[in-house]
Amino acid sequence: MSDKFTNNVRARLYKQGYQGFTKDDYTSAAIAVECDDLDNPTKEQLSQAVDYLKVKSTSQLSVVDELVEETFLVGSENAQPDPELDNIQLTIASPEINSITVTSDDKRQIVTAQSSALGFELTEQETLSIAENVDDTFTDYSQFISTVTAAIKNYVDQKFDVIEQSFETNAQDLREHVTNRASRLNQKVNNFSGDIKADMGVIRQNIKSTQFSILARLNAALGR
């Protein structure tokens, strides 16, 4: 009996015109979207699994097209043998047998799906920017997913680096501002203290002068 994850993903794919997926395909999709409980998948996991298998289907078709083209080329060369050209053809074609080719749309879809799986949303411009840095050819689909995930993490790291640098710069600016204001305040306090001392000296001198004048007048009045 199929699980809820497989049934829902299969139904959504069928409505969009995609068929022919195997049990292994659904299992790999569940692993890719990190769905551990196949009988209780989330809506996000189901949507991501559908995108995953759609891209995988497109990638598989690309590989088949490449193999058909290579077979045609090899057949043409057999009709007109040319050992040197045959060697070149084999050198180029062999690595492509076990590889997949993804389109720009494939990359954008997986970037969107993987970013959601990682717990955040990207803007359209951010999605395009990340997708442009992802290669077009991979040895298998697993490598494609891993590369996209790494590209997203690298983009997020760059964003956090910018924020952290901003914090450090602003913190340094704040420290310098506080130090400057504290220095200015200390200078004003020192100036105020100096002014008070000078004023007090003048006041004391005035008091002494006044006392001397009063004593002089008293002595004069007493005939001394």
Detailed description of the structure:
The protein is mainly α and 224 residues long. 78% of the residues lie in helices and 2% in strands. The protein contains 7 helices and 2 strands; from the N terminus they run ααααβααβα. It has a two-stranded antiparallel sheet. Helix 1 packs across helix 3 (43-79), helix 3 packs antiparallel against helix 5 and helix 5 packs across helix 7 (141-221). The radius of gyration is 41 Å and the shape is rod-shaped.
List the helices and strands and how they pair.
Elements: H1 4-15, H2 23-32, H3 43-79, H4 83-93, E1 100-101, H5 104-117, H6 124-132, E2 137-138, H7 141-221
Antiparallel strand pairs: 1-2
How do you describe this structure in short?
This protein is mainly alpha-helical and 224 residues long.
Major β-sheet profile:
2 strands, antiparallel
Extended strand count: 2
State the assembly state of the protein chains.
single chain
Radius of gyration: 41 Å
What fraction of residues sit in β-strands?
A: under 5%
Low-confidence stretches: 61-77, 81-97
Shape category: rod-shaped
How much helical structure, as a percent, in the residues? over 70%
Q: How many helix segments? A: 7
Question: What structural class is derived from the secondary structure elements?
Answer: mainly alpha
Query: What number is the mean pLDDT?
Result: 78
Distance between the termini: 133 Å
